[in-house]
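Practice problem 4.
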């Protein structure tokens, strides 16, 4: 009897492994087949989707694509929401509402809500669950539920080369300059100058670049050492293995 139980247990384990492997293969196939690119847009018809740009599968809520332009080589993570207009099936006119420059990265679960103009500059990287919106709820009337009051909208401009940390919120009317760093969880409104670091809710400038003095206050950590020219990925992998286990040398 124990031998039979061991046999049944072994068969059940094997079936589970086979099923798990099959599920992973199907999911990998779905991720590849469901990704959106310029050559395979699926049901989505963006105003523009640049060469090398990819929206990972599954996508989040996407509507108003006709008024959304995506630059070249953008990386849009899973479950990212991209919307133009207050709701689907509106005619928003002739002008683009939501623009992503070349090389923009939107991390998993991020939202970009463009009820009026939102522009994200080239090479801006957003971590997971970033929320960028041009719309805010109104609460002018104390007797009316907030959700039923007409919202306020203001354009959002994010300059090129910015880094926006996980869970940050960019509010209507925000204007970020070039190479701005937004700390994780920050809530940003108003104007932020070029080469500034902002943190907090509401966000405030905690570090900025002075052409004569450099970063103020000074950086606490040394600058990273760049990878020398000519180093191959295989060599880097070998160095990583040595660091993990010096005995391999």
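Answer key:
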């Amino acid at each position: 009897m124990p031998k039979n139980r061991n046999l049944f247990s072994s068969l059940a384990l094997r079936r589970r492994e086979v099923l798990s492997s099959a599920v992973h293969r199907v999911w990998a196939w779905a991720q590849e087949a469901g990704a959106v690119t310029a050559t395979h847009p699926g049901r989505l018809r963006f105003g523009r989707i640049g060469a090398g740009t990819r929206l990972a599968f599954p996508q989040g809520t996407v509507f108003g694509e006709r008024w959304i332009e995506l630059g070249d080589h953008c990386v849009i993570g899973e479950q990212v929401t991209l919307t133009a207009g207050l709701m689907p099936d509106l005619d928003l006119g002739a002008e683009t509402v939501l623009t992503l420059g070349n090389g923009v990265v939107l991390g998993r679960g991020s939202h970009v809500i463009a009820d009026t103009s939102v522009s994200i500059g080239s090479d801006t990287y957003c971590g997971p669950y970033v929320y960028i919106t041009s719309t805010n709820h109104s609460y002018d009337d104390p007797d009316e539920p907030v959700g039923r009051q007409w919202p306020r909208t203001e354009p959002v401009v994010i300059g090129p080369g910015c880094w926006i940390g996980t869970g940050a919120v960019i509010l209507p009317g925000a204007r970020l300059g070039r190479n701005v760093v937004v700390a994780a969880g920050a809530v940003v409104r108003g104007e932020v100058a070029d080469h500034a670091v902002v943190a907090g809710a509401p966000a405030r400038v905690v570090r900025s670049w002075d052409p004569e003095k450099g970063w103020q206050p000074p950086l606490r950590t040394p600058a990273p050492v760049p990878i020398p020219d000519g180093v191959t990925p295989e060599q880097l992998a070998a160095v990583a293995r040595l660091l993990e286990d010096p005995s391999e040398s």
